[in-house]
Amino acid sequence: MSHAGVILGLPELEVERVDRNDAISVYAKPKQRPCCLHCEYPRVRIKATYQRTLKHTRQGNQLITLHLRAPKYHCPRCGRYFRHRFKGVRPRYRASEAFRHEVFETHDGGVTQAKLTRTHGISAATTERWYHGHCERRVSEMSNRPCPKVLGIDEHFFTRKRGFATTLVDLRRHKVFDVRLGRSQASLDSYLRRLPGKDNVKLVVMDLSETYRSIARQYFPGATIVADRFHVIRLVNQHFLNAWKDVHPEGRRNRGLLSLMRRHAWRLKPEQRENLQRYLSDYPGLAALYDAKQHLNELMLLKNLRKKTAQKKLPELLALIEQLRHSPLRRLARTLTSWLEPIVMMWRFSKSNGPTEGFHTKMEMMTRRAYGFRNFENYRLRVLTHCGWDGIINRV
């Protein structure tokens, strides 16, 4: 049995015997005496011995129970007493850290609390307490994270009663930095004023939200605001489809034509392009709007341009906006003018809020699996545990 302690994951144990019945009972003791915890004197004596019984992982379908002979030591130098500390076992706990981590991973993988009660011999309340404690420990280890240099900010729905929440994402690491309740400047003011390392933020990516733009200007004054490419193109398409509805409502209800109008022109097949041109030939005004929309989307898709190249493209964009100003898309022209600088910044940088939208989908799945959250702090704890920064080493 010289290697039994290594197999169990506790190499400092000396296994005395193993009993196998409905479960596996392992009787073990420490291999050697430790130094004094207070003065590090190496020659401590055993004052008394007591037994600790705790759960420790599973072998097949059988639960391993450890019966540890735990000495109580006395130090002749400092005269103080202390109990033996087993690596991987916390004082006064009835389960090893390996077992608690196994329960966390199993429950996180979708196994219900009732199922864990039958397979691991613990109650549903214990499972919930361990799961919640593991999440709290991981989030506490993330408390000293540096503020990200590239920050994505967006909103998502939480509950009908509590409203919306704001998601802050580290777009370089593709991890959620934090989640806060509310989406107004008043609800986020106290958090953002106390946020350390705000000067580290160089880019803030967002959709075309005036609220978030004012927040970025006030709390991240040294950051460059970049508009999210997906939301800009979606806004252009929405305004074009609304103008199409005013020109020809019947054509707007045709699902085939709707599919062709939404796509980029360079992605259409030759026969699809011919069908679309045949339809647009009957509506010259709509054809002009369609060409302007395609040209605008081509400009919106540009990225990673050098400064000189972006400066050459700017007059082309301004001319196109001026053309839209004298058309049914005048509201779109006003919006593009208001957000001209963040839109131009899209040409210089390739970052977008795509990871943020992906995390929102994951948060929605977490909410569905939990049958909804009432407590926002519990919800935030789950989000940061599963979507937060992974620069953490799981301590088992």
Short structural description:
Helices cover 47% and strands 20% of the residues. With 396 residues, the chain is α/β, with parallel strands linked by helices. A hairpin with a 6-residue loop joins strand 4 and strand 5 (81-83).
Plain-language structure description:
The protein has 396 residues and is α/β, with parallel strands linked by helices. The chain folds into four domains: 1-89, no CATH class; 95-141; 150-227 and 353-387, Ribonuclease H-like superfamily/Ribonuclease H (Nucleotidyltransferase, domain 5); 229-348, no CATH class. It has 16 helices and ten strands. It has helices at 4-8, 97-108, 113-120, 124-141, 185-194, 210-219, 229-247, 249-252, 255-262, 270-280, 284-300, 307-325, 330-338, 340-348, 354-369, 376-387, and strands at residues 13-20, 24-30, 45-59, 62-74, 81-83, 150-159, 163-170, 175-181, 203-206, 224-227. Strands 1, 2, 3, 4 and 5 form a five-stranded mixed sheet that branches. The chain has a five-stranded mixed sheet with strand order 8-7-6-9-10, with helices on both faces. A hairpin with a 3-residue loop joins β6 (150-159) and β7. The protein is elongated, with a radius of gyration of 31 Å. The two termini are 24 Å apart. Mean pLDDT is 89; it is low at 391-396.
End-to-end separation in angstroms reads 24 Å
Secondary-structure class: alpha/beta
Report the sheet-strand fraction. Answer: 15-25%
> Percent range for helical residues?
40-55%
Instruction: Give the radius of gyration.
Output: 31 Å
* Main sheet summary: 5 strands, mixed
Please tell me the total number of domains. Answer: 4
Order of helices and strands: HEEEEEHHHEEEHEHEHHHHHHHHHH
Number of helices: 16
Number of strands: 10
Q: Return residue spans where pLDDT drops below 50 for at least 5 consecutive residues.
A: 391-396
Oligomeric assembly = single chain
The overall pLDDT, averaged over residues, is 89
Shape: elongated
